[in-house]
Amino acid sequence: MTAKKAWDGFSKGLIEEVQKWGSMKQTGVSLRYMMEFGSRPTTRNLLISSQFLHKELPIRIARRAIELESLPYGLSHKPAVLKVRDWYLDSFRDLRSFHDIKDKSDELEFTQMIKMIKVRHNNVVPMMALGVQQLKKDLDPKIDYKELDEIQQFLDRFYMSRIGIRMLIGQHVALHDPNPLPDCVGYIHTKMSPVEVARNASEDARSICLREYGSAPDVNIYGDPNFTFPYVPTHLHLMVFELVKNSLRAVQEKFVDSDKVAPPIRIIVADGLEDVTIKVSDEGGGIPRSGLPKIFTYLYSTAKNPLDEHSVNDLGTVTTMAGYGYGLPISRLYARYFGGDLQIISMEGYGTDAYLHLSRLGDSQEPLP
Questions:
Q1: Please, which residues have CB within 8 angstroms of residue 6's CB and are 6 or more apart in sequence?
Q2: Which residues contact 258 (CB under 8 A, 6 or more apart)?
Q3: Among 83, 236, 252, 321, which one is most buried in terms of CB atoms within 10 A?
Q4: CB-CB contact of 356 with 327 (8 Å)
């Protein structure tokens, strides 16, 4: 398929506009600025925020749409990837066709539109995962994952950009909440308890484990429940949920036919000077050393892949113990988005320790991706 055919269905004018905006430089915003600016969600500040997003979002979305057109190994032409590309082009067109934002009425109308854009992109991750699965079916099964570095690097950039876009939209939309929770500035909780978020995420993961296996190992959490720091609770919940879910599955499957009581998952929350670190430990048998380099790739999963063309539309509401192999790489991107990281240390024959490093954000003036 030629590049011209790949753009079929979209006007020449739109594609030229995408190319133009995709060549512009995006503007980063620091979390500290978001917190200070969002602490005063006046009509004027919301107007300034919407005017910024009106110019910034088309740049970010155009860049991704262009990249989706030039992926290696024919990935750009897989049906699922073409669908994602269309979502990005539709959102770009919506943003560019929106008139200048001059008053409160314009701002509220714009806010409703970007809320719909965020919903449109809800299933981008599973749909891209399906596209990668479609590609894997066509590739030589003997191909080394290291040879697919270009796809890995693209997906890292693509998903990191998606996190940034959703953070910008979500933060702006949340500032319109007439009854915000105490100590919350949009998406950001200025006094978030990592122990409390870890407890909620663990309960969610255990409920899925109970549903799928009929039982679930206990999860023990150690740390000061009164310790708080500024962070985005939804991001932390997602990361801890994925780590605990992986540990629960490993332990459950190791002890499913055993007379022994399954050992608990242990979560330790440590308050350091530079980072807040959350350690998730299990005794689920560990990961073979040869498998460790693959765990952060988008082309590897230890579980049977649940994705197909018929199931992907339901993925926004259905959660399984083992997804499509994206839990760890996506979680690491969420950690890195705010300057943290995720490391996995495994002892084959015993278990795995995941170290989630969360950067202290209160004084950070670094622009976010």
A1: 69, 76, 77, 82
A2: none
A3: 236
A4: no
